[in-house]
Specification:
single chain, Helix Hairpins, 0% strand
């Protein structure tokens, strides 16, 4: 059985395919942030944009055979996990106060 390394497998697919996929994911994330009023959907759209950036970092890192991009992705994922914990706690507290997660109703939280 032949063992192939990760860069060889990734190099079989043209880089433009990865860039197009990441672009599509990022655009979907932007559209979700700009058009939705639900805080959870906005939150998921932001995570989708982060994953698109991570995909590009891994792609460029693999094509250049430089592990720095992949290490950077690891740190981005760790920060994103902390962001999810804090963000969901904020969303839960907003829901407890105004009984909705519609961001249009957040003006009630002003002084």
């Amino acid at each position: 059985m032949e063992q192939t390394q990760i860069p060889d497998i990734i190099a079989r697919v043209p880089m433009i395919n990865y860039v197009l996929l990441a672009t599509i994911l990022f655009v979907i994330g932007i559209v979700g942030v700009l058009t939705r009023r639900n805080a959870i959907v906005i939150f998921m759209s932001i995570e989708l944009m982060l994953n698109a950036v991570n995909l590009l970092l891994i792609t460029f890192s693999s094509y250049r055979s430089d592990p720095a991009g992949q290490i950077f992705v690891f740190f981005i994922m760790a920060v994103a996990a902390a962001e999810v914990a804090v963000g969901l706690a904020i969303i839960v507290m907003i829901y407890r106060n105004i009984r909705s997660i519609d961001v249009g109703l957040l003006d009630k939280l002003k002084w």
